[in-house]
Amino acid sequence: MEEENKKGIQEVLDEYPKEQRHALAILQSVQKEYGFISPNSLMAISQYLETPISELFSIATFYKALSLTKKGKIVIKVCDGTACHIRGSAQILEECKRALQINEGETTPDGLFSIEVVNCVGSCAMAPVVICGEEYHGNVQIGQAAEIIDQAKGGVGNHE
């Protein structure tokens, strides 16, 4: 199983006092450890904090940084802030979707890529911006998104 180097949920929980005020911090830690918050994790947190699972679900769905679904190893973020939008981010997004054959919010069947649309990444001077994993790509033109994805695919093979 790929989670062999990850902490168990109880190890994550034990880092926090059993107080409801720590719910968001616990959710963030689970997100960081596993890449998403699974139904089993939500249940474990609910039991640990003696908090209704519905309350935790509300927190997890309110914050965009938290995800209840597993994301790909590489998350492609297409900025759709004002500057990026004006400079063609919608077309860049469509190119990413075609190249990966998925829609925003989805993950490729091999678990390698996910696509997200974000409101602003604070790099307006280099709009439109695509973030591929941790790498920022600015002034992205039509035709370059597929190249960025191909480079990322090649990079994954070289690091594993």
3D architecture notes:
With 160 residues, this protein is α+β, with helices and mostly antiparallel strands. It folds into 2 domains: 61 residues, Arc Repressor Mutant, subunit A; 86 residues, Glutaredoxin, CATH 3.40.30.10. It is 44% helix and 11% strand. It is built from 7 helices and 4 strands, in the order H-H-H-H-E-H-H-E-E-E-H. Strands 2-1-3-4 form a 4-stranded mixed sheet, covered by helices on one side. A hairpin with a 2-residue loop joins strand 3 and strand 4. The longest helix is centred in the C-terminal third of the chain and has 16 residues. It is elongated and about 50 Å long. The mean pLDDT is 91.
List keywords for this structure.
alpha+beta; 44% helix; four-stranded mixed beta sheet; Glutaredoxin; 160 residues; single chain; 4 strands; Arc Repressor Mutant, subunit A
Q: How helical, in percent, are the residues?
A: 40-55%
Distance between the termini: 16 Å
Q: What is the name of the CATH class of the largest domain? A: Alpha Beta
CATH fold-type name of the largest domain: Glutaredoxin
- Can you count the beta strands? 4
Rg value = 18 Å
Series of secondary-structure elements, N-terminal to C-terminal: HHHHEHHEEEH
Uncertain runs: none
Shape assignment: elongated
- Broad structural category: alpha+beta
CATH architecture of the largest domain: 3-Layer(aba) Sandwich
Q: What is the assigned CATH homologous superfamily of the largest domain?
A: Glutaredoxin
Largest sheet: 4 strands, mixed
